[in-house]
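## Example pair
The file below holds two records. Each record gives the amino-acid sequence first, followed by its structure token line.
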Amino acid sequence: MTTRAESLDPVVRDRLVCPQDLGELLNAGDELYNPRLRVAYAIDELGIPNMLIDDARTVTDDEHRAITGAAEQ
């Protein structure tokens, strides 16, 4: 099954950056994830990313490791 992040139009996806640090975002299922700030931006059921800083959710250490594949330290 395709995730919402994977379903984004490639042209749109290539232009999306984190509104906080303007850095690259990772596809994380139904969210776009900034591993530097450990925040995730939701993508709604219509495929529209919510890139509002106030609506971003903080990601736990376990979620961060799962998304990035980082080894435990």
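Second record, same layout:
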Amino acid sequence: MSPVTPFDDSATARAVIDADGTLVGWSDGAERLLGRTGAEVVGRPAAELLVGEATGPVFDPEGPRWHGLVTLRHRDGSAVTVWLLAHRTEPGDGGPAQWLVVSPLQGELPHAVDDPLEEAGLLQSPCAVAICDDRLRVRRMNDVMARVLGLPEEHVRGLRLSEVSGRPQGADIDRQLRRVLATGQGHDVRTYVPMGIDGRVNAWLARMSPITDPSGRVRGVCIAAHDFSEQYLARERLQLVNEASVRIGTTLDVTRTAEELAEVCVPALADFVSVDLLDPQDPGGEPFAGTPTVPVALRRTAHLSVNPGTPEAVVAIGHVDRYPTPSPQVDPLLAGHSIVATADADDLAQWLAWDPRRLERLKEYGVHSTMSVPIRARGLTLGVAVLYRSARQEAFTPDDVLLAEEITARAAVCIDNARRYSRERETALALQRSLLPRSLPSTAAVDGASRYLPAARAGVGGDWFDVIPLSGMRVAMVVGDVVGHGIQASATMGRLRTAVRTLADIDLAPDELLTHLDDLVVRLSAEAGHEGSPGEVGATCLYAVYDPVSRRCTLARAGHPPPVVVPPGGAPRRIELPAGPPLGLGGLPFESAELELREGSVLAFYTDGLIESRERDVDASHRLLCEALSTDSDSLDETCDRVLHRLLPTGGAPDDVALLLARTRGLPASQVATWHIPADPALVAPIRKQVVEQLGTWGLQDASFTAELVVSELVTNAIRYGAHPIRLRLIHDTTTLICEVSDTSHTAPHLRRAKTWDEGGRGLLLVAQLTQRWGSRHTAEGKTIWSEIGLLEED
């Protein structure tokens, strides 16, 4: 007896034969059957024990089992005819298959007149019933169980159920039966074992009950097996559908969604899956709404196999191939429904006749069944998923088709959503880039560099930046961020950027500009609402004006992160500004601050996408920003790249990022001339003379005539219509000469058309014709009229 179980293993004759037909195992029962010890037979060919031919089914070396009548040679020379059951087993170490041969020993089952095992009346049950004795040997079974096992009762009697099964799960059955014998209590067991000659794995509910004699002694076990494979498969399909709903569509990426579809199907439903998608005719449009034209161009988006490296695949990922009809890829698209083809019916060969290389590859890996499922969503054809079976013996069933269609339908919705998101993202990104400046203007006030990065996953937002030249060599710098993402945010950003440029042209102070911009956002919010509900338009903004003559910068912000300044040779620091409310709240004041900047100072403006991160707090991000800005570099572009590399994750920013760096310049005092003018029209002529002399000193004699006329007209108007004191200022760089006349009157001049008989009214018209630009701006003391004269000759 075995030291593990109290049952006599010698009641069954067992032998193990390797793939070469050599005996490698021999039990005590086999010795009792043929009188030969293990030492005598182990290592010798099993055929030496045979007498004549076996009676039974044709032996298949690759089959799961064989059974039949065999005549064996006893040690004493006599012939012994026995019934053998042989199971093909796979060693756990991956070696060649072996055969486990078992046979019940006759005369081992006692028969008593009052034996409860013989009197059990369950054999008429419609369920599969088997009765085992106290040694777990089969004593009786009904016809239903015989059909399930594929073996007659008279041959199975005396074997254990584990020996009949020949599978690893059989050991668990024996353990459960021993439990019933030991406790005298029945219980239910769910198991999944192959039963019958076809080896198909079924799900079984085995009800094990003790069989007792009149004295209450447990004499055996009754097993009533119920096949609930259909319920089990239905639950497995439902679980796979649920898994598909969780695993497919985790991202808004078409390729990743196709990969997830393949991962769900392999190995649960198929051994190899390919996913091919149609490229839209118009990159910005919808996929095919009707039947595609043959041959159909499909892009291999994903494939997966149970074999490492997916050796069954002929087409590489990303490759576009053209498929004719008939083919697994085109036929379901033309038919509008799933199609199953099998090697047995020869329709699989017909499908692949157009490409012998594909057919040879599938034959090489034993593909015997193919299912092609069109991928469709919203009435649009997106592509096709083709599922193959090779390692799994059974072909695709109608239930498999329904399951594949359910999974593919879920994937189609996700693929369609991903494509629509990609189209919207590309549209919004194109709109965003068209609204942002393609290059920063060259100004005498600052050198600039900028970067814009769209969000990696959240979609394009409404971040923007701009550098706007102003009068008097000054420059405005603005950075803003519209709440939300998508095309609506980009469109709102464009409207705000245009509004900022318009307000900057009338030279509003930063706090006044933000006030007007706040009013605009309030109106946009009201327009965005519907049915009395308020809209959700909101934004933050930072606006700064730098004057290279005074080297002073005036800034104001509306809920935007404060800028960082890096003085020449100094450490970076945040500029402390009044926070200001975000744009769109309405009615709240904005405050500006002014600071003096040394020439060569670097101003860093940015949106919150640069400093907000899940991995660190805002203060830590500011420290990283300052570290990146503190590294000496003559190139602002290099500094931009270093900042983005230091602060943003490798997979892309979770939010839009706009970054603007500006290095300040200072205009030397030698390029500025100022005169204070008395309120006497007779002094205009001497002023003109001084202007001409100054231009001569600067070497700008070519501009003297125009400058003299402009200065004469502007100074005369200031004396006549302005208020004292009056100041004239000339500023020049290599390209522009600026004439400014300031007075303390807040009345702005306007250009008018003088009639033929009018004696005056042509002064500002003359200024407008002689200069590149002209205009006026209000100051705290009054106003300034300015004009710009080009110094470079036009080609």
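Notes on the second record: The chain has 20 helices and 31 strands. Residues 476 and 597 are 15 Å apart (CA to CA).
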